User: Which sequence fits this backbone?
DNA sequence: TGCTACATGTAACACGTTACATGATTGT
DNA sequence: ACAATCATGTAACGTGTTACATGTAGCA
């Protein structure tokens, strides 16, 4: 019975369908695979949101490629709505970084465990970095000329810078802890 | 009636009290002022969590400096519990970056609005960066010799690297959008 | 035949913030 | 006197995930 089902989910849903019409199931896969590094939606959000959007006439449902599957697409009103939502101020959720929380209480956790956490974080960042490079190369090839490409590259650049920063930070932090008694 | 009130909140509460006994109110201020860049707790979390911890004998309540105020401190059992919780695997919450979500759908939002978002983000990052430098200088002075200092410096270093990366990314992204038709 | 992937939807639960109710202390 | 700050707690609300229930289609 929600009226204002979280606007941010509506952005992801309308935005995804604005690139290509698809089923709710495919939409979730697309969000996971394409926005996965900075956004996520679960079925429990997507289905109710699609129902709300349909009730408001912002998306339409047609028979999908397979029986039992619906193909959703954005209506002109839906595109207007998406433009409005995108222009709205960003609502930041309060920060919750479990890694930094643990490191801050490193005196209690112990320096050795801190080092392990840092090494693991460094490894993850390096894996992400490699993945970003691979994705960037792939979409430059496959989506060459697409009007969405520059924007995808902007978000990938964010991931790259963030991963590089994480690696440099981990090295700094390991050096800092070197001096702090093992 | 919750049994497992979010462990991460317990870490913040026990960890804060492990540095110095204080009232629930002071604890919230300490968390906001000291962990604010990577963690947050609200009263609605802190009070019930303290009640749970007290019922389990992990924190104790003494009369505070002012009538009506309780001074909470960690018991030996509480310190053990904190050590356990800190060693537990980090539960990451799904990413939700509203800025990147908007930029990804930049074709719909428009290049001009994207640029504004990037300039604003760059400004915020620069403000954070200045703040991190100021805090680092202050605690190096005030908390010199404290066993907690190196760990505080590690978390500050994370903030510094992250802010610097955000600035560099914003510049990159603005350049990328320069080519992408205004 | 049976497994996997595709597909839709709901319900229960956990989480977390905001607003509210209430009151004491301190400084002006 | 009055305002601001310190202080404790609860309730309502929104949000978001997970697990469940259900069924179809393609393939080995």
Assistant:
């Amino acid at each position: 019975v929600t009226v204002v089902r979280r606007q941010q989910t509506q952005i992801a849903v309308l935005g995804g369908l604005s690139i290509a019409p698809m089923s709710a199931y495919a939409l979730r896969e697309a969000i996971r695979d394409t926005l996965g590094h900075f956004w996520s939606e679960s079925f429990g959000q997507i289905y109710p949101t699609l129902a709300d959007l349909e009730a408001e006439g912002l998306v339409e449902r047609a028979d999908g490629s397979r029986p039992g599957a619906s193909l959703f697409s954005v209506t002109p009103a839906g595109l207007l709505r998406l433009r409005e939502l995108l222009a709205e101020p960003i609502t930041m959720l309060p920060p919750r970084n479990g890694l930094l929380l643990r490191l801050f209480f490193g005196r209690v956790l112990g320096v050795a465990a801190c080092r392990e956490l840092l090494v693991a974080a460094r490894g993850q960042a390096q894996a992400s970095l490699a993945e970003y490079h691979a994705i960037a190369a792939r979409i430059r090839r496959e989506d060459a000329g697409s009007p969405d490409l520059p924007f995808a590259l902007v978000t990938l650049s964010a991931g790259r810078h963030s991963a590089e920063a994480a690696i440099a930070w981990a090295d700094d932090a390991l050096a800092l802890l070197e001096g702090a008694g093992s």
